[in-house]
Write a sequence for this structure.
């Protein structure tokens, strides 16, 4: 009976190393709060870029009614944004360009 009590902790100690080294117990490499707030900020920026694009560039009475239909027309709009042809603030220019790049895979 005494040998069983001595053998059980010895076996547990022998298998503890491989169990812990298997990666079953680990910490995330990126804190969840940082990843969540970063992705949330990107989504907000994308939505704001799309809103500015719709409101100031592609509405029916705007300079490009209907907006970009393909990557080539989106590139033309980006070039016009860089030339400051539209009434956009610096932040709006950045967000609208990021929206178009993402939307049309430029």
């Amino acid at each position: 009976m005494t040998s069983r009590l001595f053998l059980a902790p010895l076996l547990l100690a022998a298998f503890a190393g491989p169990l812990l080294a298997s990666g079953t117990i680990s910490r995330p490499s990126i804190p969840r709060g940082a990843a969540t707030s970063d992705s949330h900020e990107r989504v907000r920026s994308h939505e704001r870029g799309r809103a500015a694009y719709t409101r100031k560039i592609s509405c029916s009475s705007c300079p490009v009614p209907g907006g970009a239909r393909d990557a080539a027309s989106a590139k033309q709009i980006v070039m016009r944004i860089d030339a400051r042809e539209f009434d956009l603030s610096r932040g709006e220019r950045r967000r609208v360009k990021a929206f178009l790049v993402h939307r049309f895979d430029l």
User: Anything to note?
Assistant: Residues 32-56 form the longest helix (25 residues). DSSP finds four helices and no strands in the chain. The CA atoms of residues 49 and 94 lie 8 Å apart.
